[in-house]
Specification:
Elements (H helix, E strand, L loop, with lengths): L1 H25 L4 H6 L10 H6 L14 H24 L10 H8 L19 E3 L8 E3 L4 H16 L27 H7 L14 H13 L1 H4 L6 H10 L11 H16 L20 H11 L8 H16 L3 H17 L12 H25 L19 H5 L16 H21 L15 H24 L30 H22 L14 H26 L7 H20 L6 H19 L3 H33 L35 H13 L7 H4 L3 H7 L4
Antiparallel strand pairs: 1-2
Helix pairs in contact: 6-21, 6-24, 8-11, 11-12, 11-13, 13-14, 13-15, 14-15, 15-17, 17-18, 17-19, 19-20, 19-21, 20-21, 20-22, 21-22, 21-23, 22-23
Organism: Penicillium olsonii
Protein name: Zn(2)-C6 fungal-type domain-containing protein
GO molecular function, one term: DNA-binding transcription factor activity, RNA polymerase II-specific
Length: about 725
């Protein structure tokens, strides 16, 4: 009897064990299915999560479903909080845990260093390692850069086109392509030193005579001085320039004079047709016009490194602007870095003392905020950490009152609404402050992503990050309301200035050219920053849900990019306001590539037709600028090539949609790219969401596309483009 009972109890135990094992199988359901109490098919991802486009995870952790379990969970969390608070209180006492100056600086900018022993610190966003054209070294470009967006676009097109044929690699015409810097060898050091300041055409470089110098210097006050940043006192500069002419024909060396001449040569010559640019560029590319003066100024600046002055800081900022116009972006980054350190050396990060004159306080304030603007520009353009710290208070904003304008050293008439020629600079600074806050907030997010995942792999994460951006949309709109009417571009048909309503501009006559340029550039800057801020919502992976915040912001990005194309094209057609202004070209290139990305992601959106028309306007802009400098001509060529690919994808998507409406299948093999001879190239093209592709196709399209598109913004390093620079420094070593 006892044996029977024992046998029975064993059987009951085995049955109970089997039942428990079956209950354990239910726990294998993913977290989402357990939460919704739905049946999970145990796939990765499961069909339910795939349908909802949500992250499918299985942590194996059961949720608290009873009061007792919830109480226990709360107590556990409380103990954990006390433990973390204790560790935090002990941290200042541990000298080994004190952050280094570099670490604290990075943390203040939202870019925290990663420690293997601490998983709680933020990590850098994904970027790319890019080797620019004709360069042997790779550089890192961050997530806000256009090059990173182009890479994502190129990958998407590779997956969806799978072009097996090879096309000729397209590269923009640059200085090295045209043998721009092949120069005759200098005859002698004495000859080189004598010729640098007189009107004879030298064998080793192109320098200007006094009359030519005055012509280009006068351009500065109507252009960069009023529409970039007013960091040079005009009256003091003119006195300084006059004092340099002591011998009648030869000017004493001055780094500030040389860089201003270089900037204005680059701008002035780029405004002329190529056949009218003359010997000042030696029949070559206008983007590097003035390079002789630039390099001579660099030689002089090298002697001021140990004892910098306000003039030194002015030179570094103007050099950065010159390098940006010539598409030497890594050199620009270095110039801005030097400007930031120089500003700290000079104490520009502190409010000027009260015993300083109003004129001196004004120039110091404008200099600091010019450093702030350039630091932000290079940061978002290249996707790299900001160099200025946000953790401390900034100096007061510059004054734009009538009294401040009267003592600024420049004589420009008031423009109304209590605004002056300095008001453009003030409101541009306010715009950059708001934009920087938005960028920092967005890229400072601690996203719940697994290793190797990006924000574009999960629609729910993308939506959460979009909500962060949405908080700053109103902030930018508030900035628009604060801009005085005197700085706003009027629109036809009662259109709203600084908006995306699509109305044409009303370019007023009988206005100073500097004021018209301020109005145009202020609006273009607003749209350009908006495009860069909202572009991450154009996702080539997980597409946002219709009507979601992410989709709304992607539409905003396209709307601002459309306005850039419309404004730039109209201004170039009807006026000379933007002739030779390289920043307008870079803004248009940025908008065109963003629009192409938007079109392929949203081929059926209500805004797609207008976006496609805006790309055609961009090509018109590139064609017009291409008659003045070669990079714009290549931008037009590249954009046309991409439009063929984009139109094919849009038409194919429409055929598929029509086939679904009529219950028919579509034959992609019958669709060919115009002008191409293919053999069922697209017959096996994957679905737009497919992650599988033939690796052999990447060099055929994706890599080539990326190279030619990125080359628009990247040229060689100075040692490659200007191999004789060492000889030039040796010849001019006495300066």
């Amino acid at each position: 009897m006892m044996a029977f009972e024992t046998h029975t109890s064993r059987e009951d135990g085995q049955k109970l064990s089997q039942r428990r094992q079956k209950r354990a199988q239910v726990a294998r359901a993913c977290d989402g299915c357990r939460l919704r109490r739905t049946k999970c098919d145990n796939q990765t991802p499961c069909s339910n999560c795939a349908t909802r486009e949500q992250l499918c995870s299985n942590s194996g952790a059961l949720k608290a479903s009873t009061l007792a379990q919830a109480t226990e969970e709360i107590e556990t969390l409380r103990r954990r909080v006390k433990q973390l608070e204790g560790e935090l209180n002990q941290r200042p006492k541990d000298q080994h845990n004190l952050p280094t100056p570099g670490e604290s600086s990075l943390s203040a900018r939202g870019f925290s260093p990663r420690h293997d022993s601490d998983d709680r610190v933020k990590q850098y966003w994904q970027g790319i390692q890019l080797r620019p054209a004709r360069s042997s070294n790779e550089i890192w470009l961050g997530p806000s850069s256009l090059q990173f967006f182009i890479q994502r676009l190129g990958t998407f097109l590779t997956l969806n086109l799978q072009q097996a044929h090879s096309t000729q690699r397209l590269l923009p015409i640059s200085a090295s392509d045209n043998q721009l810097l092949n120069r005759p060898t200098a005859r002698s050091h004495e000859n080189s030193a004598r010729r640098w300041s007189i009107g004879e055409p030298p064998a080793e470089g192109v320098y200007l005579n006094p009359i030519q110098e005055e012509y280009f210097i006068n351009l500065f006050w109507q252009t960069f001085h009023t529409a970039l940043f007013p960091i040079v006192d005009e009256s003091q500069f003119k006195e300084h320039y006059q004092s340099l002419w002591t011998g009648g024909k030869e000017r004493a060396p001055s780094a500030l004079v040389d860089i201003i001449i270089a900037m204005c040569m680059q701008y002035g010559i780029s405004a002329l047709p190529a056949d009218a640019q003359g010997l000042l560029v030696e029949g070559q590319d206008a983007l590097v016009a003035g390079r002789w003066h630039y390099w001579r100024g660099q030689t002089l600046l090298s002697y001021e490194l140990e004892s910098p002055s306000l003039s030194t800081l002015q030179c570094h900022l103007l050099c950065a602007a010159y390098l940006c116009g010539g598409s030497f972006h890594n050199m620009m980054d270095n110039a801005v870095s030097t400007a930031v350190r120089t500003a700290y050396m000079l104490g520009m990060h502190l409010d000027p003392p009260s015993n300083m004159s109003r004129r001196e306080r004004g120039i110091r304030s404008r200099l600091w905020w010019a450093v702030y603007i350039m630091d932000f520009k290079v940061g978002i353009k290249l996707g790299r950490p900001f160099m200025l710290r946000d953790s401390h208070s900034m100096p007061c904003l510059p004054d734009d009152s009538l009294d401040a304008a009267r003592t600024s050293g420049s004589m420009f008439a008031p423009i109304g609404d209590n605004a002056t020629w300095l008001s453009f600079n003030l409101h541009q600074i306010k715009l950059y402050i708001k934009a920087r806050a938005a960028f920092t907030s967005y890229y400072d997010q601690d996203l719940p992503l697994s290793t190797g995942e990006t924000v574009w792999d999960d629609s729910s994460v993308l939506e959460a990050s979009a909500e962060v951006l949405a908080q700053h949309v109103r902030s930018l709109q508030d900035w628009v309301k604060g801009v005085p009417d005197a700085l706003k571009l009027n629109r036809q048909n009662n259109g709203t200035p600084l908006s995306t309503d699509g109305t044409s501009l009303l370019i007023e006559g009988f206005l100073p050219l500097w004021l018209q340029r301020q109005r145009v550039l202020l609006e273009l800057t607003y749209h350009h920053l908006s495009v860069n801020l909202y572009r991450p919502m154009i996702s080539f992976g997980s597409k946002p849900q219709p009507g979601s915040v992410a989709e709304d912001i992607a539409m905003r990005c396209a709307s601002h990019a459309i306005m850039i194309s419309k404004i730039t094209q109209q201004v170039l057609m009807e006026s000379s306001i933007l002739d030779g202004w390289h920043e307008a070209f870079h803004s248009q290139w940025n908008a065109a590539m963003s629009l192409i990305g938007f079109i392929v992601v949203y081929p059926h959106a209500s805004l797609t037709g207008e976006a496609r028309a805006a790309v055609d306007l961009a090509i018109t802009v590139f064609d017009g600028l291409g008659t003045r400098f070669a990079v714009a001509a290549d931008a037009a060529k590249i954009t046309r090539e991409l439009c063929v690919k984009v139109d094919f994808l849009v038409n194919r998507s429409r055929l598929r949609l029509d086939s679904l409406d009529f219950g028919m299948g579509s034959d992609d093999a019958s669709i060919q790219l115009p002008g191409e001879v293919t053999s069922n190239v697209f017959a096996s093209a994957p679905d737009e969401r497919s992650n599988a592709f033939n690796a052999e196709m990447i060099p055929a399209f994706g890599s080539e596309f990326f190279d030619m598109a990125v080359d628009i913004d990247f040229w060689n390093d100075p040692g490659t483009l200007w191999p004789e620079f060492d000889d030039l420094v040796a010849h001019q070593g006495g300066f």
